[in-house]
Write a structure and sequence with these properties.
Layout (H helix, E strand, L loop, with lengths): L8 E10 L4 E11 L4 E12 L1 H18 L6 E6 L2 H7 L11 H14 L3 E5 L6 H13 L2
Parallel strand pairs: 1-4, 4-5
Antiparallel strand pairs: 1-2, 2-3
């Protein structure tokens, strides 16, 4: 068992997806400590949503689960395979899809309150297979 009080940095892989756009959607997140040990895997069925909405929800899921583990205040690197969402969350791209504004604000508020040191890294889809698996499990199971 990892002593979480000594974890200084966490890495969260996130992925969201929808079958159809919109369609049945799911989010997945995996939290690792700085040594690569898995601290938590989580997934959530999101109902009928767009793929971009699901990507945002996956980021929120990862941060929320990290908070539940008592990791608030840790340095966080979030790795995701959506360059658009990475750039929007980093403040480099405008959010044109109106339904995503609430998602952005929800994540922003969690960051400000609990995770002030968050960076976002775009990764190739092949490097995100575990988070993708969790998102698809959520869709398959409807949970």
């Amino acid at each position: 068992m990892v002593s979480l009080w000594c974890v200084k940095k966490i890495i969260i892989y996130t992925d969201g997806g929808a079958r159809g756009n919109p369609g049945p959607a799911g989010a997945g997140a995996i939290i690792y400590d700085e040594n690569g040990k898995v601290l938590k895997e989580a997934h959530s069925f999101l109902g009928e949503r767009t793929n971009n909405w699901a990507e945002y929800e996956a980021v929120y899921l990862g941060l929320s689960e990290a908070k539940k583990l008592g990791l608030a205040g840790s340095e966080v690197e979030i790795k995701l395979d959506s360059e658009l969402i990475k750039e929007q969350l980093s403040g480099n791209y405008k959010i044109k899809e109106e339904t995503l504004h609430g998602q952005f604000i929800k994540i922003h508020n969690l960051r400000v309150k609990d995770f002030p040191n968050v960076t976002f890294t775009h990764i190739p889809r092949e490097e995100n297979s575990e988070a993708d698996r969790l998102a698809n499990e959520a869709i398959d199971n409807g949970s």
